[in-house]
TrEMBL record:
Record-given protein name: 2-oxo-4-hydroxy-4-carboxy-5-ureidoimidazoline decarboxylase
Lineage: Eukaryota, Sar, Stramenopiles, Ochrophyta, Bacillariophyta
Keywords from the named record: Decarboxylase, Lyase, Purine metabolism
This enzyme's EC code(s): 4.1.1.97
Superkingdom of source: Eukaryota
Organism: Amphora coffeiformis
GO molecular function: 2-oxo-4-hydroxy-4-carboxy-5-ureidoimidazoline decarboxylase activity
Family matches, as Gene3D superfamilies: Oxo-4-hydroxy-4-carboxy-5-ureidoimidazoline decarboxylase
Pathway(s) where this gene product acts: Purine metabolism; urate degradation; (S)-allantoin from urate: step 3/3
The UniProt record lists the keyword Electron transport: no
GO CC entries: peroxisome
Cited InterPro entries: OHCU_decarboxylase (IPR018020), OHCU_decarboxylase_sf (IPR036778)
Coiled coil: none
Length: 182
């Protein structure tokens, strides 16, 4: 079982790939990012691992690969995102949506549909610690972006989600002993 950097380094390529698909991305829609990270193993330090993962994320994927990966991710506020979530990640990440009033949930759903139609991918946001009101406000603000601006914003938000998941799953802490997600 992969639970730290050593076990990640020691895992077979297939086990590491499966771990990424099931524990980090929760999909198997695109392996390009995983391939780039696995090709750099072994990693001596968490910082090097995260730098490699971020470099591959930001510079090693095409626009279409980012879009495919985003569209394979559960949408914010979708009940099936948390009900079929064996790892509990979605529920924890989307905690702010758990007490969302029905009218606000309906508005968010309507805005997400406009967003997807406008940009061609689902609304991505690092939702940890945000309330439903904050999530709705951010969505409204981002609808004003150009596609280029929003693609950059969405891929950055998706990186933040995946970075947090990597840190959680591998037990990484920042230099003062706290989990660092930003």
């Amino acid at each position: 079982m992969i639970c730290d950097l050593k076990s990640f380094n020691d895992a077979s390529e297939q086990d590491a790939r499966t771990w990424f698909r099931e524990q980090v991305l929760e999909s198997n829609v695109c392996d390009a990012w995983i391939d780039q990270i696995l090709s750099q193993r072994p990693f001596d330090l968490a910082e090097i691992f995260l730098e490699t993962a971020e470099t591959a994320w930001r510079g090693g994927l095409s626009e279409s690969q980012h879009v495919v990966m985003m569209n394979g991710h559960p949408e914010i506020g979708r009940t099936e995102a948390t009900s079929g979530d064996p790892n509990g990640m979605e529920a924890a990440e989307q905690r702010g949506m758990s007490d969302c009033p029905p009218a606000l949930a309906a508005q968010i759903d309507a805005d997400k549909a406009v967003y997807r139609q406008r940009f061609g991918f689902i609304y991505m946001i690092f939702a940890t610690g945000l309330s439903a009101d904050e999530l709705a406000r951010a969505l409204q603000e981002r609808l004003a972006n150009t596609r280029e601006e929003e693609l950059e914003t969405a891929t950055t938000e998706f990186w933040r989600i995946n970075r947090k998941r990597l840190m959680d799953k591998l037990g990484f802490m920042d230099s003062v002993g706290k989990e660092a997600y930003i």
